[in-house]
Known about the structure:
Number of helices of chain A: 6
Oligomer: homohexamer
Largest interface: A-B, 69 and 69 residues
Structural class of chain A: mainly alpha
Mean pLDDT of chain A: 96
Order of helices and strands of chain A: HHHHHH
Helix content of chain A: 55-70%
Shape of chain A: elongated
Strand content of chain A: under 5%
Distance between the termini of chain A: 48 Å
Low-confidence stretches of chain A: none
Amino acid sequence: MPTATPIEYADASPEVRVVYDDIMATRKIDWINNFWKVLAHHPPTLRRTWQSIKEIMAPGALDPLVKEMLYIAVSVTNNCEYCIASHTAAARKAGMTDAQLAELLAVVGMANESNRLANGYRVEVDERFK
Amino acid sequence: MPTATPIEYADASPEVRVVYDDIMATRKIDWINNFWKVLAHHPPTLRRTWQSIKEIMAPGALDPLVKEMLYIAVSVTNNCEYCIASHTAAARKAGMTDAQLAELLAVVGMANESNRLANGYRVEVDERFK
Amino acid sequence: MPTATPIEYADASPEVRVVYDDIMATRKIDWINNFWKVLAHHPPTLRRTWQSIKEIMAPGALDPLVKEMLYIAVSVTNNCEYCIASHTAAARKAGMTDAQLAELLAVVGMANESNRLANGYRVEVDERFK
Amino acid sequence: MPTATPIEYADASPEVRVVYDDIMATRKIDWINNFWKVLAHHPPTLRRTWQSIKEIMAPGALDPLVKEMLYIAVSVTNNCEYCIASHTAAARKAGMTDAQLAELLAVVGMANESNRLANGYRVEVDERFK
Amino acid sequence: MPTATPIEYADASPEVRVVYDDIMATRKIDWINNFWKVLAHHPPTLRRTWQSIKEIMAPGALDPLVKEMLYIAVSVTNNCEYCIASHTAAARKAGMTDAQLAELLAVVGMANESNRLANGYRVEVDERFK
Amino acid sequence: MPTATPIEYADASPEVRVVYDDIMATRKIDWINNFWKVLAHHPPTLRRTWQSIKEIMAPGALDPLVKEMLYIAVSVTNNCEYCIASHTAAARKAGMTDAQLAELLAVVGMANESNRLANGYRVEVDERFK
């Protein structure tokens, strides 16, 4: 059981519905996933989090698929099950192939390994990288 | 001071030089960074780590710049200073602009935030994401 | 299935019962949660962990509710499901409101985000903060 | 050397100065710390991060000192040196005593320990905590 | 549901079967655990990961049981449920007793605690340890 | 600069000296490292932390060198610089060779990698491991 039960659209306050409507319009979908329905218990967090994610994940210098893959890389490193599941789904919807996911996870695994080799040997940063 | 001092090319054994030569040839550079010069204290780790990174970071379903950015995302999440410095340099060499770095870090920050909101509220994975 | 099954009071050795009794007396409750019932497989760990938590979580310069909230902040950052569930329950029992939990999680999320922005940009510590 | 050098007020664009001015006014200080001066390289991140922190750290259901202490708890768990230094300074300015800091760090240490005991023994969440 | 369903031996390609056969021969077992059956979706990752683990976990300067215990220490710190379960089973098979597991987890817990005390107090590295 | 300056023996209170004396007697050394000299600012934390470490790191079902290596594994995974430096020194004093350190770090790196592969593919725990 989650700490807070999801708030469905039918039960949501007007200020929550404004956010739900914007999520569905922005993403061109007709449903709201549990993350938002749980944040709805604290409308300021719901609003602020959605505004930030909407702005950050929009196309810009990086395309949306690359952004979704970065999201997966962080979520896998932190082992956030909900986030791995939801962003893997989002990345697939944005066109990620099985081969791309496999390479992404290979890089994430390798980076986590070499991070610890660098830490464990206490490697000094090269002058050229400073 | 690092746990192990870097081993320079001039002081390296033949089996270490083989790896150093391959790193320089593969990356089209004429120097070796400290990470490899420290791993050289244990040639099996040097050889295996280089072979893995060489294979994983090669062009494939994802292009090398995207792979470098994924590497940064993991290293920032783990706060590995050496890795952040070296892979930021590598990504810039591969063409990453300041705007791309800024967006990358914005996504990494946001993902670390929403990972904790999902954890803290113990959000259940939606049926559609399972 | 846990690595070790919980040891119930009826099946516990005298040295384990002494700890169970002290937990119930200190917390003014009539049951023992699974964390302690699993640690009971190694009585030295059970005793030492309980003594430390009893001392650390007692009222002092910080009040017990603030301490429970700090516990949640760490557990959410580490994504320890058991600890999030048990300390959220403990904090609520100590008076934490829904609004307080929401603000706590907002701070935890934001701190995890800004930690990575500071790491990723490798921000130097200001002289005034040293 | 940081990835990006701090941008001083004198060198900042008008949109950056607006944020700097608001930071100084809100916090009743006459200087800007490096975190913001580095984020200034990407004004959307500067603006959004400041707006979020300003909203989240304002007095509400939790008082500002408790919020600063939660920030320290997360930063210590993640080992973000910049964040530990800056938020320890901020908490002290908000009235945190040495005794409070010591108890805070004792709780953070203990929580990180018991998180791993719960993980390692794979303790099942009690029915009462679900 | 996992992101990728396990690939059984009967359904595996010849290049995957070569790895499965080597895993079973090396470990003297007659089954393959899910980790490998999922990596089988990307044969280069399956092959490389197995070769690395086979080389790293072989008897050397450290005996295999110590290596399995180090694996548990990392997996518990990262809270990787699959890895905790599988390496606890492997360590037990290699002879780990309940008392050894209990001491291992006590060390892991304590190390996670003292890591944060060192971080939080920003303890400077002693000259003798540099 | 650390958050708290180390307290030297000459400046320590009697209750702190009791702990310093026990550390030196137990470890058969004639100096105190910074970790304890900083904890001395809060005598209850100094006393409790030392008692716990003394009990946990004593010979038992695992020998002290294995315990020091487990400590390194955790500290490298968390990237606690102080702890990596001090426990690498302690392990070497307890007899750890360069080859053992190299294998230890190889296992730690690999475990951090495979933890993320297991997370990222969301591998289900095998029935036999439950």
